[in-house]
Every structure is written in structure tokens, then in C-alpha cells.
């Protein structure tokens, strides 16, 4: 299911990303408690889905997963991580800003502008979403 009413990536697509190795998971006693799914776009790695089980939120699982993703992406030669997220939800944009992401104007980044347009086309209220980037240099 979705988190905060967000449409999640279809399972078939998640399975394709996982098969290609673009997924990190957090496991506790054989149960998956969090995951992050990404896809490469040139030298940028885009975060499609990032979830932590509600019982484990606020305990450092998400920040540890994201730090792992940042290290892995840097070691793999990516120049940046990108994502789109809710602008006002506390554990979305403000969390990513604390983790080194900055807001990016869609007009400066055509791929992310297209992603925001798709999200608004699927019913997200205008201005509710923000595109973000984290330099890995």
C-alpha cells in the first residue's frame, strides 16, 4: 500500500528494479522493515520508492537506508541522487533536506519536470510535490 496517500510503484515494476539490483532493504529478524528502490538515468540515480514500516519509523532506519544508498551510488560512479516527494509532509521534503538534498526547479531539470507533471496529472494538488537532488561529489 501507499504511504501518506502516495501512489506506490506497481509491484511488477518494483520486481524489475529488484532484479536489476536497484534496491536496498532493511531487515530485522528475517522481516523486511524498510526498502529503497532506484533507477539509473545517466549519471543520476532516481529514488522511486522509499518506505519504512510504521512500527520502525523514527528509529533511524530510513536515514541509515538513505545513507547506504548514497554511499552505494557514489561508489558506483553516480553524480547525484534525484527524487520527487511531498513538499509539506514532515518525513518527506524536510527529511531529505536534512540528508543533503536540495530543491531543484523543474525548469532546470527536464526529466524531473516531466515526473512532477505526471504526478500532477495523476491528481496530486499543484504545488504539493517538489523535485530534489543530492550531489554525490
Descriptive overview:
By secondary structure, the protein is of the alpha+beta class. Helices cover 31% and strands 31% of the residues. It is built from four helices and six strands; from the N terminus they run H-E-E-E-H-E-H-E-H-E. The longest helix is centred in the middle third of the chain and has 15 residues. It is globular and about 45 Å long.
Termini, distance in Å? Answer: 34 Å
* Overall helicity: 25-40%
Give Rg in angstroms: 14 Å
According to DSSP, the number of beta strands is 6
Helix run count: 4
Reconstruct the topology from this structure.
Elements lengths: L10 H9 L3 E6 L2 E11 L2 E9 L8 H15 L4 E7 L6 H6 L3 E2 L6 H12 L7 E7 L2
In a few lines, what is going on in this structure?
This protein is of the alpha+beta class. 31% of the residues lie in helices and 31% in strands.
Q: Which descriptors apply to this entry?
A:
137 residues; alpha+beta; six-stranded mixed sheet; 31% helix; 31% strand; disordered N terminus
Amino acid at each position: 500500500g501507499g504511504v501518506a496517500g502516495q501512489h506506490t510503484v506497481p509491484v511488477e515494476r518494483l520486481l524489475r528494479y529488484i532484479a536489476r539490483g536497484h534496491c536496498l532493504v532493511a531487515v530485522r529478524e528475517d522481516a523486511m522493515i524498510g526498502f529503497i528502490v532506484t533507477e539509473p538515468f545517466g549519471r543520476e540515480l532516481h529514488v522511486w520508492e522509499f518506505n519504512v514500516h510504521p512500527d520502525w519509523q523514527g528509529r533511524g532506519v530510513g536515514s541509515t537506508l538513505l545513507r547506504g544508498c548514497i554511499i552505494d551510488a557514489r561508489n558506483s560512479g553516480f553524480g547525484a541522487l534525484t527524487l520527487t516527494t511531498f513538499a509539506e509532509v514532515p518525513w518527506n521534503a524536510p527529511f531529505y533536506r536534512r540528508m543533503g538534498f536540495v530543491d531543484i526547479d523543474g525548469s532546470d531539470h527536464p526529466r524531473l519536470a516531466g515526473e512532477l507533471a505526471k504526478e500532477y496529472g495523476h491528481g496530486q494538488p499543484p504545488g504539493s510535490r517538489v523535485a530534489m537532488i543530492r550531489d554525490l561529489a
